[in-house]
Amino acid sequence: MQRKNAFYGAVVWLLLLWPGLSLAQQAEQRISISNFDTAAIMQDMEQARSLRVLPGKVEEAKAVLYKTLGKSRIMGFGRGERNALLMLIQIYYTERDYNRTLPLTEQLVKASPVTNADARLYAYYFRALAFHMSGRQNDAFKAYTLALRTAGLAPAMKAEMLNNMGDILFQQNQYKRAKHYFEEAIALNKQLKDYPNLIANYTNISRIPAHNSFFASAKAYLDSSKAIARQHNVADEQKMAIYLREAEMYNRFNLPDSALVATREARRYYRPHNNRRSTGHQITMFEGDAYLLKGNYQKAEVSFMTALDKIDSIHNKFDLLYTLHKLSNIFEKTNQYKKAYYAHLNAHNIVEEVKSNERLLKIRELEARYSTSEKDRVIALKNLSLSQSQKSLAQKNLLILSVSSGAVVLLLLTVGIYLAYQRRQRVMQEQVKTEMLKGIMQGEERERKRLAAELHDGIGGQVAAIKMNISAIDRAQLPAGIYRQLEEVEAMLENTHTEIRSSAHNLMPDVLNRYHLQDALIQMINNLNKVAAANIHLHTPYPLTPLGNTAELLLYRIIQEALQNAIKHAEASLIEIQLLEYGGYLTITIEDNGKGMPPTQPGAKGIGLKNISDRVASLKGNLEVESRPGAYTIVRIVLALEKLLVLKDASSETPQKI
User: Fold this and answer.
1) Strands 585-592 and 632-640
2) Which residue among 17, 97, 237, 495 is buried most deeply as judged by most CB within 10 Å?
3) Please, which residues have CB within 8 angstroms of residue 652's CB and are 6 or more apart in sequence?
4) How far apart are CA 412 and CA 42, in angstroms?
């Protein structure tokens, strides 16, 4: 009833305000159209789009886009601003001018509302690519992660970003995580039947087993790439890439003759008309590695000198450094010490240049931000001039607007009170739900404590008493057969007593009363490693936020349940647990190499997984279970720290922890 009355009231006020608003809108529209027309802006955008593809017209296209950008900002025309920014980003990225690309991506994020997922997606995407290509890998990985979380992500774009993230992790020696990303990219490209990118995925993932000295696995990936290249029409450049990776692999496994054969095959598919940014220089670079392995320094020197001549020194700093270091070693071994000195000096200068470029990039980012603020100031001055010209028209409608503004204030006040009431109701409901969750958990823990006490003091005490009575029997008078049976019974009672104590401890672990979650998990895992067949590892990169007894006990139970599933049901021999806080969220990952979960009907869950799911759902978290029968199971849990901190106990109720 209240909502209906508010609706009718709003309609009445809008009818009263309509004449005044229409006059003001007409005046504002006349001024806007007289200065800038949105249709003209879109026409300029089409002109820039045509110019950018014409030879020698890129700079003219940029000038049109910057002019369009300024007009759009003065008008408040968001679509025009976003389109101009995106086209400028694409132009500068194509030119590999990452110093200008990055500030523009920041502006695109600011100009894109949360509801405009497409614009934010492209901003994160090009920002990640610019970071990646300029060597800022950690920043690139964060930007890729933001892009992957953005709505509207196309599968092909997702596959490309997963492949790039895997490449970053490989360079950081995180081979297990890199393999996971490469495999996800492979699965997506198989669905899309994107054979060129699938070849790139296979050649990239082959580096992981090659680095870990698994020759057969590395060769199998490269053979898969060759099979795809034979079956499908792919570019010669990709065929060349396969043989280059094969040559690199053979050199790593000290097979120089096979590496030379691979480089000859790569040369068959090399097209000299390609621009200097190609990877053609790697043919002679890997030839040089092979000749070094064979001890032929003369041919190795010729190969590396040829590679040095072909390398694009602006965009292939890593290969340039690699080649200079190899030449320095060759010159030193062949007593050409002057050449060795200059090769080493050049390598040192390149390292210093890279560091200098990184500092320059930071400075240019700051300069770009300052320039943006200056442009915003100019736009603000233009807006001020525009508002002054509107002032004379606004005075004519002052009486109508005065009455209307009072009505609007009254309407907004009414709506504000209503929204505040609704917000307060939601807060109260959340508080009630939180208290209910606390109550349920406290009741559950009290019941666990009672069961633990009954097991330990009741049943455990009775078993101990039975054992004492049996021990008191005079066994010297017993026949031999009964004596042996009595020993077996006594051993069974000992095992039963141990199991009862272990179950009682698991029901109510005392460790959480003395330690925080991180230390409690370490103790639990140490105890399990002593008795279980599995090898369990815990990874916490940095100390976790103290969450209080209630929340930490809940997390402890979730991880305990997941470990029981992995040990008893999956029969895993290796279990990896990771707890990571990032961006206001706590992520828990439990991976095992067990027999996985059998395929079941949709919605079917075991008791252990059902318990975990219920606990995560009570905190409005996200649970993902990935399993492959006979291979592995990965449990990922993402919880908002805000929800966990709501459960934090009062300080008077929290025991002092270490």
Assistant:
1) antiparallel
2) 17
3) none
4) 36
CB neighbour burial string for 95-112, b if at least 16 within 10 angstroms, e if fewer? eeebbbbbbbbbbbbebb
Average pLDDT score over residue span 610-623: 85
Q: Are strands 574-582 and 535-539 parallel, antiparallel or unpaired?
A: parallel
- Per-residue pLDDT averaged across 150-156, rounded? 81
Note the pLDDT of residue 393.
Answer: 58
- What single DSSP character describes residue 334? T
Which of 526, 531, 615, 601 is CA-nearest to residue 568? 531
Give yes or no for a contact between 234 and 196, defined as CB atoms under 8 angstroms apart. Answer: yes
Q: How far apart are CA 295 and CA 425, in angstroms?
A: 80
- Judge contact between 259 and 251, C-beta under 8 A: yes
Helix 256-268 to helix 281-294 angle (10° resolution) is: 160
pLDDT tens digit sequence for 213-260: 889 888 898 898 888 988 988 888 888 889 988 998 998 899 999 989
Q: Which residues contact 589 (CB under 8 A, 6 or more apart)?
A: 576, 577, 578, 580, 634, 635, 636, 637
Decide: 575 and 566 in contact? Cβ < 8 Å: yes
Q: What is the 3-state secondary structure (H, E, C) of 579-607?
A: EEEECCEEEEEEEECCCCCCCCCCCCCCH
State how far the Cα of 210 lies from the Cα of 571, in Å rounded to an integer: 30
Nearest to 137 by CA among 178, 104, 100: 178
Structure tokens at 293: 């392995």
**What distance lies between CA 592 and its chain's CA centroid?**
21
Query: Sign of the CA dihedral 179, 581, 520, 541?
Result: positive
d(CA 120, CA 202): 30
Q: How many CB atoms lie within 10 A of CB 185?
A: 26
pLDDT tens, position by position, 265-289: 989 888 775 444 467 788 888 998 9
Which residues make beta-bridge pairs with 591? 576, 634
E-strand stretches of 114-218: none
Rounded to an integer, what distance in angstroms lies between the CA atom of residue 418 and that of residue 421?
Answer: 5
pTM over the 0.70 mark: no
Q: What is the pLDDT of residue 366?
A: 57
Q: What pLDDT is recorded for position 442? A: 62
- Could you tell me the pLDDT band of residue 438, with boundaries at 50, 70 and 90? low
| Joined tokens for residue 534 | 């599995």
CA distances from 450 to 254, 446, 465, 509 (A): 66, 6, 21, 13
Beta carbons of 120 and 109 less than 8 angstroms apart: yes
- Return the CA Rg of the chain: 35
Give the integer Cα–Cα distance in Å for 283 and 285: 5
**Angle at the Cα of 143 (from 369 to 312), degrees rounded to 5?**
80
Residue 642 pLDDT:
84
Say if CB 321 and CB 351 are below 8 A apart. yes
The kind and range of the H/E element at 538 are: strand 535-539
Q: Is the Cα torsion angle 248, 249, 255, 259 positive or negative in sign?
A: negative
Task: Give φ, ψ of 54 to 5 degrees.
Answer: -90, 140
**Do residues 198 and 189 touch, judged by C-beta distance below 8 A?**
yes
Average pLDDT over residues 295-311: 85
In the three-class reduction of DSSP (H, G, I as helix; E, B as strand; rest coil), residue 37 is classed as: coil
352 token code pair: 């210093």
Spatial CA neighbour of 283 closest among 253, 238, 248: 248
Residues in CB range of 101: below 8 A, 6 or more apart: 89, 92, 93, 126, 127, 130
